[in-house]
Amino acid sequence: MGEGHSKSHASKPPPLLSNPWRKINWGEKQSVLQFVKNYKPHVEGQQIRILLHGPAGAGKSSFINSVQSVLRGRMYTLALEDNISAGSFTKKYTTYKIQREDPQSFYPFVFNDIMGLEPIKGVHVDDIKLALKGRVMDCYRFNPESRLSEDDPFYNSSPADNDKVHVLVCVIPASTVSQMNDKTVQKIRDIRMEASALDIPQVAIVTKIDEVCPEITNDLQNVYKVKYMKEKMEQFSAEVGIPMKSIFPVKNYHDEINLDSDIDSLILSALQHILTVGDDHVNFKKTQSGC
Question: What kind of architecture, by CATH, is found in domain 7-284?
């Protein structure tokens, strides 16, 4: 993705913008939280399936856990995480449901975690394309050398609508946007083209934003005032084609032991957009069933 910014530039980010380039209501977290808690697809029995993909160590599992923590009101670990970024920790296709306060009730959306997009030993792109169509069953163990075959017991030959992906989310760390391997970028583009052909909306989440600028480290509310952060997002948008309006910077919960309102606000902002475009996709597919 090019050589990107020099270390000297990264260590000395430009001054904060006088006005944020994107508005977010930091003090109104509860209203967005209520939106998510009240969210219900227009189609009865519908479940919004959200597929996360991206480089190994990007924070896909951490994002799932962070969403769970925000919605449950306490720190929660649903998806297993790993602090070592050498290779993908996720090996199997897994669906994660998020439980409501009622133990017998779940939110009408699920997350699917997937093996990382390493240039050589990462998930096979064809497996992600099959997952988009609902062809991959839970617990399928990814094989970087070959795609899921139709005679495999984990191949879903008759996927229901709830098996199919309704939102594709690319997760990328802010600190490595400029250093992504060209093969990884090409994989992201290939997956994006397949999703576009299926009319699946695409969102990007830029993680680890607190690691790129001290201004953000000291105060998350500066995220939309730091020009360097905007440049990172614009660079990623130009490389893979996801529009800026669908790219959201977040900080996942990592070493915190208590919830933080600013972290929650960024996570909820991204989640609200994901659910909205997912719902639009489902409604569009229902009205265009003859196409």
Answer: 3-Layer(aba) Sandwich (3.40)
